[in-house]
Amino acid sequence: MIDITLNGAPHAVPAGQTLAQLIETLQLQHQSLALAVNRSVVPRQLWPARVLVPQDQVDIVRAIGGG
Amino acid sequence: MQNPNDLLTIAGKQYQSRLLVGSGKYRDLAQTREATDAAEAEIITVAIRRVNIGQDPSAPSLLDVLPPDRYTILPNTAGCYTAKDAIYTLQLARELLGGHKLVKLEVLGDEKTLFPHMPETLVAAEALVKDGFDVMVYCSDDPIQAKILEDIGCVAVMPLASLIGSGMGILNPWNLSLIIEQARVPVLVDAGVGTASDAAIAMELGCDGVLMNTAIAGARDPVRMAHAMKLAVRAGREAYLAGRMPRKFAASPSSPMAGRLA
């Protein structure tokens, strides 16, 4: 396992896990989401190719009600 | 009946409705949708937030009830206090909404007033315009700042009428008039409207539109207030186009003097 930060909190994932696999593990694959690693947006089509490495800071966001 | 030729144009796209609404503070998603439809709003602001990890993945989401193919979704940067955070938020929003360029920039100064932090707002606006965003910008009701934002390339300037969520109404109509007079992009009042007459006053001043959230969501009956706001924005717009009578200090009888019995 490797340690990453997921939405501001510590999170452990198996070594070699991709962003696409992370989203699937979290059961979020059917949601409207955007994702950034280390504050850089990763387009959806690149999620299967981006492998998580230790200390990666991942933000997963969605749209919610707001003014 | 709305005048079909009196359209609001923002970043080259035309809208029938001059009432823009937020999607926050509603009881639930059903009420959000119902109020949005009662307002007949076409542009709806949303916030971008981190997903709660572990939440029910099958729970309905905001974009299910406000589908982007039917409404123009306007992602905001509410809660951002720096240009850096605002830019990051909107980069994520653009990805989330499939390359969507129209955004609402707001960089706040402090939690007590939620007043815009203008130096950070200017920095963010410049970077976002350079990056290809169409920026509608929440700003102070200062004609100089509004002009600078327009010169940077913002597609709409949106001064506050009073503090966000305060419902205090149009506190400085003179400043708004100065901004409207000089502007070459749409001017929308963003924040402060409390009830229908406030929206009408903003429109009578010559604002191109009004953006509100709490005035509707915080009403006793939000759906009914959304309807009232739709009518107020239309009435104010029509009154502005009709041109009000001049104010006079003396009375002037409405009935003819000739032929009276007295």
What does this structure look like?
Chain A is mainly beta. Chain A has one helix at residues 19-25; strands at 2-6, 9-13, 34-37, 40-41, 57-65. In chain A, strands 2-1-5-3-4 form a 5-stranded mixed sheet, with no helix packed on it. In chain A, strand 1 and strand 2 form a beta hairpin. The mean pLDDT of chain B is 95. Classes of the chains: A mainly beta (67), B alpha/beta (262). At the A-B interface, strand 3 and strand 5 of A face strand 4 and helix 3 of B.
Topology:
The complex is a heterodimer of chains A (67) and B (262).
Chain A: E1 2-6, E2 9-13, H1 19-25, E3 34-37, E4 40-41, E5 57-65
Parallel strand pairs in A: 1-5
Antiparallel strand pairs in A: 1-2, 3-4, 3-5
Chain B: E1 8-10, E2 13-15, E3 19-22, H1 29-38, E4 43-50, H2 62-65, E5 72-75, H3 83-96, E6 102-105, H4 118-130, E7 134-139, H5 143-152, E8 156-159, H6 173-182, E9 188-190, H7 196-204, E10 209-212, H8 214-217, H9 222-242
Parallel strand pairs in B: 3-4, 3-10, 4-5, 6-7, 7-8, 9-10
Antiparallel strand pairs in B: 1-2
Helix pairs in contact in B: 1-9, 3-4, 4-5, 5-6, 7-9
Rounded to the nearest angstrom, the distance between the terminal CA atoms of chain A is 40 Å
Which protein chains make the most extensive interface, counting residues with beta carbons within 8 Å of the other chain's beta carbons? A-B, 28 and 38 residues
What class do helices, strands and sheet pairing of chain B give?
alpha/beta
Q: Which percent band covers the strand fraction of chain A?
A: 35-45%
Strand order of the largest sheet of chain B: 5-4-3-10-9
Low-confidence stretches of chain A: none
The amount of beta strand of chain B, in percent, is 15-25%
SSE series of chain A: EEHEEE
Overall pLDDT score of chain A = 95
Q: What overall form of chain B do the CA principal axes indicate?
A: globular
**Main sheet summary of chain B:** 5 strands, parallel
Percent of residues of chain B in helical segments? 25-40%
- Report the span from N to C terminus of chain B: 43 Å
Q: Which structural category do the helix and sheet elements of chain A fall into? A: mainly beta
Q: Sheet with the most strands of chain A?
A: 5 strands, mixed
Strand arrangement in the largest pleated sheet of chain A: 2-1-5-3-4
Rg of chain B, nearest Å = 20 Å
What ranges of chain B have pLDDT less than 50 throughout 5 or more consecutive residues?
none
Oligomer: heterodimer
